[in-house]
Specification:
Number of helices: 12
Oligomer: single chain
Largest sheet: 9 strands, mixed
Number of strands: 21
Helix content: 25-40%
Distance between the termini: 65 Å
Strand content: 15-25%
Structural class: alpha/beta
Bound molecules: ligand LLP
Radius of gyration: 23 Å
Length: 430
């Protein structure tokens, strides 16, 4: 199997960022997420540089939903990243990580009044998803004696090649305002006393392995930009969202690079803004591409069972990595102790959760796993720990950061006390 440069095999053992994964599993226990922070910053630099080669005013906003660990967000903040935040929690994390409010965008199709008030208080721009939300934000900003700077989220009605649950710009999806109604929305925003429209936002979906759909959404964006500019709006930014996929099937998936992405999108963007006579900042919101390949999930084999197939029963399941169960996603798996040995059988890696769907990897060719071995699930850095749960009352596992050959905890494992910490015994009154 092809491995990216930060994953290596030495003395038969898998290493991440030069650190032995089997030793990490022994030292910190399993299950365990391990993240190579140098890979995260390297990915950020490649992404930013690819776009900045075409246009100087580029702001990369990390989609914080992909990985909510402060150490990861701090590493990105130190590189100059902003963030796409989708909740008060993500907003708080981004600010604690040192990101400036002007580099954040508060997104979401269902924001509460409290969410809107928080964005106004912190001076964070809002991607507005409906006219109802626009008028609520106008009122909230008025109460605070402030002006809210906004973009509208455009729904470009685009079919994209990805899992239907993560295609976000379909005509039928819950996100955004239909492109044909967007001018009316900007007109309404201009009439609001406490709103200033300054941007346009769009996001067409996630794990997209072709670059052409991004060019098509950029076309919609610049068309809207033209009409909005003609209306008298001064556009400070165009935010084309995230969505560039990564090759989870290492040997067979296409692997479009940020340079390929930029080559598809930038000519459309540059021609469009030239025709409008404007020079807005270009904002992008990658999540998966920045962090996806930076982490492995290490999980220990509890037992091996020959039934209608051979199950390798491990200590991590969809409580810690829900992507295979939720989207039928594929993640490469390796026996970390014998990573360079040839396969001698076909194995299905199953978690400890009480559901038939708790399978991390189906029918994989591996060197015979046995109890005590460490299995590494690759490309677990995006929407991995971030989507974990305490299902079956299993405390979440620890996360370790690796950088420059060193390693340290970036989140301790939860205990059973953490699982019960927020529970109360109702004191019923007769
Ligand atoms: N911007 C917005 C407004 C988004 O909704 C998303 C992702 C992103 C940016 C980042 O997209 P990315 O570059 O990571 O593809 N849990 C799913 C993915 C859900 C994506 C949700 N929105 C998965 O595990 O595949």
């Amino acid at each position: 199997m092809k491995l990216p440069s930060h994953l290596t095999v030495r003395d038969s053992r898998l290493h991440l960022g030069g650190v032995d994964c089997v030793s990490l599993a022994e030292e910190y226990g399993t299950p365990l997420y391990v993240t190579d922070l140098d890979r995260v910053t390297g990915n950020f630099r490649r992404f930013h540089a690819a776009l900045a080669a075409h246009y100087p005013d580029v702001q990369v906003l990390f989609a914080a939903k992909a990985n909510g660990n402060l150490a990861v967000i701090r590493a990105l903040a130190a590189e100059g990243a902003g963030a796409d935040v989708f909740s008060p929690g993500e907003l708080e994390l981004a600010i604690r990580a040192g990101m400036k409010p002007e580099r954040l965008l508060f997104n979401g199709s269902s924001k509460s009044r409290a969410d809107l008030a928080l964005a106004v208080e912190k001076g964070v721009r809002v991607s507005v998803d409906s006219l109802d939300e626009l008028h609520q934000l106008d009122a909230v900003a008025g109460e605070a004696g402030k002006t809210a700077e906004i973009a509208f989220r455009v729904n470009p009605a685009l079919e994209v090649p990805t899992h239907p649950k993560i295609a976000t710009g379909l005509a039928t999806s819950k996100f955004g305002i239909p492109a044909q109604e967007i001018i009316g929305a900007y007109r309404e925003a201009l009439a609001c006393e406490h709103i200033e429209p300054v941007g346009i936002h769009c996001h067409i979906g996630s794990q997209i392995l072709e670059v052409e759909p991004f060019a098509r959404s950029a076309e919609v964006m610049v068309r809207v930009a033209k009409e909005v500019t003609d209306l008298g709006v001064h556009l400070e930014f165009l935010d084309i969202g995230g969505g560039l996929g990564i090759p989870y099937h290492h040997d067979t998936d296409p692997a479009p690079t940020p340079a390929d992405y930029a080559a598809a999108v930038m000519p459309v963007f540059l021609k469009g803004i030239r025709e409008c006579g404007i020079d807005p900042a270009l904002w992008v919101e990658p999540g998966r591409w920045l962090v996806g390949d930076s982490s492995v999930l290490l999980t220990r084999v509890n037992s091996v069972k020959k039934a209608h197939k051979t199950f390798v029963n491990v200590d991590a399941g969809f409580n810690l990595l829900i992507r295979p169960a939720m989207y039928d996603s594929y993640h490469e798996v390796l026996v970390a102790d014998r990573a360079d040995l040839p396969a001698d059988g076909t194995y299905t890696v199953a978690g400890p959760i009480c559901e038939t769907g708790d399978i991390l990897a189906h029918d994989r060719a591996l060197p015979t796993p046995k109890a005590g071995d460490v299995i590494a699930v690759l490309d677990a850095g995006a929407y991995g720990y971030a989507m974990s749960s305490q299902y079956n009352s299993r405390p979440r596992c620890a996360e370790v950061a690796v950088s420059n050959g060193k390693h340290a905890l970036m989140r301790r494992a939860e205990t059973l006390d953490d699982v019960t910490a927020a529970m109360e015994t109702p004191a019923w009154k007769e």
